[in-house]
Write a structure and sequence with these properties.
single chain; about 350 residues; alpha/beta; Peroxisomal Thiolase, Chain A, domain 1; 2 domains; five-stranded mixed sheet; 10 helices; 12 strands; about 35% helix
């Protein structure tokens, strides 16, 4: 069960603001004030409204991650025992595994006054990392090894080396490359737990996790292989397997399609294989239009959008899906049922 959510993104500083902005189609896609690409054009980016552009990427991720954690744990009236699962970027120029571990240590230390951490696990797997972290937490809760867990996804491309790397790989959207994406930064967090433990703590239940699953796509981006969506299709099929059809069909899907041809072409094959769980498999929301590509923050933010849409009364239906695809080949999906 999902008891609480927290979010911070270029379009808002807390969950309801982020969800409402995306629902309204508000965009914060802009230009970096100082950086230019190889053609001399200002680099496009979606940046946090409160963080100075000169702040190092590790500090940006810490500030956004802590903000999302604070919001998600606000309803805890007493110090609770919980696991902590963190989705992080894959290693890339401007970001290393060591920096990721230091970030995990800092965020864990910040949580200690409110949460007694039973386990801490980082998942440096990029876009799918947040949903992979959720899958790991859900498995521990279902097995009875945990009763409560915080699942955080956090990412920021706002590092000069990272942006140059994207530009060199023709992934940065600009006038010379219309098939790239606009880099963003964000954090999303979900407080999940067993129904019994949430009741003991007096916490609400925003949504029920119907299923979460991951698979590996062998035909990855930046290779000569042709991706036909097998990994993503299998992950979605597994995540939606527990739905009672046709009564519980998915009405809204949140995904990390971001403007890159590879991602759009991969998704093109999914409805050919997996159509039964959907009212309309093409009824998806791609929030990158509003907040840019937010990498490892994607999954928890998508679940935040689902929870906020139900809480504020504009969800198309009770059953929603989130999915994300990583450059390393990881594919992950989660289906939820609103309790609102």
């Amino acid at each position: 069960m999902i008891a609480a959510v927290g979010a911070r993104a270029p379009v808002g500083l807390y969950a309801d603001a982020v969800g409402t902005a995306v629902h309204a189609g508000i965009s914060r896609l802009s230009f970096h004030p100082r950086w230019v690409d190889r053609t001399g054009e200002r680099m496009r980016a979606a940046m946090d409204a409160r963080l100075p552009d000169s702040l190092p990427v590790s500090e940006r991720m810490y500030a956004m991650g802590l903000s999302a954690l604070d919001e998600a744990t606000h309803g805890l009236r007493a110090r609770a025992r919980a696991g902590f699962y963190i989705g992080l970027p894959e290693p890339r120029p401007g970001w290393t595994l060591d920096e990721g571990e230091r970030l995990v240590e800092r965020l864990s230390a910040a949580l200690l006054p409110r949460v007694a951490l039973e386990t801490v696990e980082s998942v440096p797997k990029g876009h799918a990392a947040g949903l992979l972290a959720l899958e790991a937490a859900a498995a521990k809760i279902e097995a009875g090894h945990l009763e409560l867990a915080l699942v955080l996804g956090v990412d920021s491309y706002l590092n000069a080396l990272t942006m140059e790397w994207l530009d060199e790989n023709r992934q940065l959207a600009n006038e010379a490359n219309r098939a790239g994406f606009i880099p963003g930064e964000a954090a999303g967090c979900c407080l999940v737990g067993s129904r019994e433990r949430l009741a003991q703590l007096g916490l609400p239940t925003l949504a029920r996790l119907v299923g979460v699953a991951s698979r590996l796509e062998p035909n990855r981006i930046k290779t000569d292989a042709v991706c036909v969506g097998r990994g993503l299709s299998d992950a979605i099929e597994a995540a939606t397997a527990a739905l009672r059809l046709p009564e519980q069909k998915i009405r809204t899907t949140y995904c990390d399609i971001n403007g890159e041809s590879y991602r759009s072409e991969e998704f093109m094959y999914v409805p050919l294989r997996v159509w039964a769980p959907f009212v309309d498999s093409n009824a998806y929301v791609a929030p990158a239009d509003c907040w840019g590509d937010v990498g490892a923050a994607s999954g928890p933010l998508f679940l935040t959008l689902a929870a906020v849409s139900a809480r504020r009364g504009y969800a198309a239906g009770r059953h929603m899906l989130a999915w994300a695809s990583s450059e390393c080949g990881a594919r992950a999906a989660a289906a939820v049922e609103s309790c609102e």
